Amino acid sequence: METEQFEALMMYVLVGGLICFMIFIIWDLAKKSKAGRLGTAILFLGLGLCLFAFMAKPVIGYLIEVFRGIPH
Predict the structure, then answer these.
(1) Average pLDDT per run of 10 along the chain, which is 72 residues long?
(2) Are 26 and 47 in contact (CB under 8 A)?
(3) Based on C-alpha coordinates, what's the Rg of the chain?
(4) Are 33 and 41 in contact (CB under 8 A)?
(5) Which of 12, 26, 35, 70 could form a Cys-Cys staple with 30, CB 3.0–4.6 A?
(6) Per-residue pLDDT, 68
(7) Which pLDDT value is given to residue 30?
(8) Do 39 and 22 meet the contact criterion of CB atoms below 8 Å apart?
């Protein structure tokens, strides 16, 4: 396995693990603070929005390339 392939694979694996860990932290925070359903939803919306933006950026970039007709 080449270095570039390993780095690309680890980028997805480690960043994915970090995202999962951050979701766990938000859930644990809601559980320990006894936030209830609405409070948990607000926590996930507020704190999880940056995670959604980070995950949506490559998808939006890919869609822009596809609709412009630029081969990748």
Answers:
(1) 88 88 93 93 88 85 84 60
(2) yes
(3) 17
(4) no
(5) 35
(6) 85
(7) 93
(8) no
SS3 4: helix
Q: Domain tally for the chain?
A: 1
Q: Is 25 within 8 Å of 57 (Cβ atoms)? A: no
DSSP letters spanning 7-69:
HHHHHHHHHHHHHHHHHHHHHHHHHHTT-HHHHHHHHHHHHHHHHHHHHHHHHHHHHHHHHHT
pLDDT at position 37: 93
For 7, the domain range is 3-68
Specify the pLDDT at position 29. Answer: 93
Whether the CB-CB separation of 48 and 34 falls below 8 Å is answered with no
